[in-house]
Amino acid sequence: MPTGVAIRDAREQLFDAAERILLRDGPNGLTSRSLAAEAGVAKGVLHRHFADFDAFLVELILDRAQRMRAQSALLQDFAGTATVTDNLVAALAGVFNSIAVHVMALMVARDELRRRIRERRPRGFPVIAEAMRMIASYLAAERDLGRLAPDADADMLALSLLGTSHLDYAGGDGGSPDEESLRRVVVSVIGGALR
After folding, report:
1. DSSP classification of residue 28
2. Fewest beta carbons less than 10 Å away: which of 91, 115, 121, 129?
3. Which DSSP state fits 177?
4. Taking Cα atoms as reference points, which of 40, 41, 21, 17 lies closest to residue 30?
5. Partners of residue 129 on adjacent β-strands
6. Predicted model pTM
7. CB atoms near residue 74 (< 10 Å)
8. What is the spatial distance between Cα 186 and Cα 182, in angstroms, rounded to a whole number?
């Protein structure tokens, strides 16, 4: 006798459910029980596709890092269009409306998860590291187009943008930074480099 209805693309269904939980309830709200309930599946579905909950989290984080790489390609297409400030505000809003910050909290709180991620990605927090590369690549493209000073350090500007935005996010009411606060950060960090 069958035990249930087959689920199409169960991994993606679980990943999407985890992302909704992280965005709504934060890292503490994400448990195997809450995941199964959010995805509308039996708890055993998770263990059918992943060795354990930390194995699931590793794959979720690496999947979302891969998605951030796809966003990087899109941001590159905006180089030379609109304003550098507007493009950066939109990109940063996208980062902070994703699970990027929650991934950091998960990795800090879960030793086993951190160990497993380090086996696959030895440096950095995967989603945040991809966001950093995305912003730095975009800034380098704008520098090459002459919209930033020739000596602008794209990597350091990206680090400053993400770090300052994250501090603003962490110090707020738990929601994502609003557009005006992101705009203040962007103008403060890149203002001297704009041409």
Report:
1. G
2. 115
3. P
4. 21
5. none
6. 0.83
7. 12
8. 6
